[in-house]
Amino acid sequence: MTSIGYGAFAYCSSLESIEIPDSVESIGEFAFADCSRLASIEISSSVTYIGSYAFRNCSALTIYAEVIEADKPSGWSGSWNPDNRPVEWGYTGE
Q: Which residues are CB-contacts of 2 (< 8 A; sequence separation ≥ 6)?
């Protein structure tokens, strides 16, 4: 799998955490929108595209991104994290 499509997990109220594998390069618009119980997501450095509102209304979410904020891929939408959920940049899983 190389991509997570538009709205793929939107409104999935049972999803609590997810680790995006290295094979994934893109996360579509609204992919995890309105996942009310999603508490953590680990995004590998292989992800070069994240669409708009990918994590909209995920009120419990903390995002763990392997990339460093200064090196954030230009393909990540300016509104990928519209609710400004906390992001731990440079996450190594340790």
A: 23, 24, 25, 26
